[in-house]
Amino acid sequence: MDAIIMEWGGLLLRWVHIITGIAWIGSSFYFMHLDAALKAIPDIPQGKGGEAWEVHGGGFYQVRKYLVAPDKLPTELMWHKWESYSTWISGFFLLVWVYYLGADLYLIDPAVRTLSPIVAAAIGLGGLAVGWVVYDTLVKSPLAKNEVVLAAVGFAFIMGMAWFFQQMFSGRGALIHTGALMATIMSGNVFMNIIPNQKKVIADLIAGRAPNPDFGKQAKTRSRHNNYLTLPVLFLMISGHYPMTFMAHYAWVMVGFVLVAGASVRHFYNERHAGRGNAWWAWGLAAACIAVAIYISMLSNPTGREKLGLRALKPIKVASLATVPKSVDDILSSRCGMCHAAEPVYLGIIAPPKGVMFDTPQHIVRHANAIRLHSVRTAAMPPNNITQMTLAERRVLADWLSTVR
Q: Residue 183 to residues 158, 176, 186, 226, 402: CA-CA distances in angstroms?
């Protein structure tokens, strides 16, 4: 597919995904805050709900929550579900567009495992499906009676899946699939449990039956899980732009510390909004976890290891049959090599941008479409033409790229 079409498709899908994600996360944070701010009132039995008054945009809002439902329901109800559905759907198409259609570039790393694009996509989709089934089974099991035990088992499971993905895919592909798994769990909670349980409650009320309060409790448990997973998912979704994260040899371990850090920050705000004080220790724990994550990323980086006083890593050798004309190799080495190398020499850059390296013929051929888009069809690279790549050199690249498929 044409590189420009691929780039525009990725841009538009990311745009939609960000918009829908903001809507979903915003509503999630709002309702968690609202739940914590509810106050008991005489009109609602103790422990059955509460009320909160809010001011926004020049108006006042009186919000009441009924743990099960009031005696009478209005004819129209505002459902909060499509924020979740549209976020997952747009994210799924973005995953397919970037990582499955562009598997050779973004998902498959021959240094990790040799896979065909179809097999790689099957592993990715299978991992998401299995991940949801395992999580759903855990929440429905006796483990759910103890939230701490359930959280510990769930944490170990996500860590295990992160490890599995890193054994299959490129670092970038592994982290994005770990984030996609967590996002699938979150949206699955809404689609498979929270909304269906709400519909059961409404059906009972319409039929004159007393709703089962367990439906609301189950939905609340899963909603809480979604709340604590939100920040780690966001981290993993943007990690693909930062090579220090996805190029780490122990990225799957880093995922665990990011999980704890994100959940700790959410816990602080959950406690604060509930009026239970400020759990300042949560910030300390989050900071410590991020510090460990940074340390883990430095272990895999030549500059980082030097700063830590550790010996250099042995280079990974990958057999390659790729060939590149000397003229092309010379251009990329002189104009791009100071940044796009295993050990960048350009001041301020300690890892190759986006993990792109031009230090071997295989790497150059692998990133041919990126070269075509950023240095031939546009002059985006080098940035501001800082290394003064000439028009003649871009023509040499264009001539070579015309022979590459």
A: 12, 10, 5, 9, 40
Residue 160 lies in a domain: yes
Residue 297 is predicted with a pLDDT of 87
- Which ranges of 169-250 would DSSP assign to H, the alpha helix? 171-189, 195-206, 213-238, 243-246
Q: Is the dihedral of CA 70, 74, 79, 80 positive or negative?
A: negative
Residues 295 and 386 in one domain: no
Are 132 and 191 contacting, i.e. CB atoms less than 8 angstroms apart? no
Burial class of residue 377 in the structure, from the number of CB atoms within 10 Å of its CB (0-12 exposed, 13-18 middle, 19+ buried) = middle
Over the chain (405 residues), what is each successive 10-residue block's mean pLDDT?
82 96 92 85 80 91 81 81 96 96 88 92 98 96 91 96 96 95 97 91 80 81 92 94 85 96 94 88 97 88 57 54 84 92 83 85 87 86 89 92 84
For residues 165 and 256, state if they share a domain.
yes
What pLDDT shows up at residue 319? 47
Surface-to-core class of residue 207, CB atoms within 10 Å of its CB (0-12 exposed, 13-18 middle, 19+ buried): exposed
Range of the domain at 16: 1-67
| Cβ–Cβ under 8 Å, residues 202 and 76 | no
Per-residue pLDDT, 333 = 92
For 359, phi then psi, to 5°, come to -95, -5
- Are 10 and 53 part of one and the same domain? yes
The residues near 29 (Cβ < 8 Å, ≥ 6 apart) are 227, 230
- Please report the pLDDT score of residue 347 as a whole number: 82
The Cα-based distances of 264 to 26, 227, 234, 288, 292 in angstroms read 19, 11, 15, 11, 15
Do residues 45 and 190 share a domain?
no
DSSP secondary-structure letter at 343?
A: S
Helix segments in 239-340, DSSP class H: 243-246, 251-273, 281-299, 302-308, 326-335
Q: How many domains does the chain have?
A: 3
